[in-house]
Amino acid sequence: MELIFLKKIIDILVDFLKNLFKQKSLRKDCKAAGDKVSEAIKELLSLRPNLNKVKALLSDAEKLCPTQSEDLFRAKEMLESIQIASRSIEKSVPSLGTKTSKGKQSRKTTSKKKKARKKVRAPRYTAKKKAKAKIAPAKKKHYVPKK
What is the pTM of this model? Predict the structure, then answer.
């Protein structure tokens, strides 16, 4: 009788310890899921969010933590609103060089660049060339070759 009673107590303790470790690992997973959700929200708030990366992060967070947090719910809402906004922008602005809604081909408009002026630099004289050209060293005359 004492052995049966002792065995039941041991079973209860083992179940208690299993639950304790399971809860601890579940908390770790939920914390990791929270980190993934916060990273997804940061990506959504960036100037040009990578929607595929955000979708992957949110799906990983869902798998890690069975209970949905408020942050995960908000991140999903943000993702949906950004997707809707990006679709409406793509529809309203035709890309350059493609057919418009009227069926006419649109042209790319670029500004014409001005031609750069050629820089004419006077040749540098060495002492021998100055003597040959009979230019006084005090005067600064630039030699411009005739065409």
Answer: 0.50
Closest CA to 64 of 29, 21, 39: 29
DSSP labels, 57-82: HHHHHHHH-SSPPHHHHHHHHHHHHH
Query: What ranges make up the beta strands (E) of 61-141?
Result: none
**HSE-up (13 A, CA, CB side) for residue 14:** 6
Q: 138 and 130 in contact (C-beta within 8 Å)?
A: no
- Contact indicator for 56, 64 with CB cutoff of 8 Å: no
> Is pLDDT at 77 greater than 90 in this prediction?
yes
pLDDT of residue 80: 92
Q: Burial level of 90, CB count in 10 A (0-12/13-18/19+)?
A: exposed
In angstroms, the CA 50 to CA 53 distance is 6
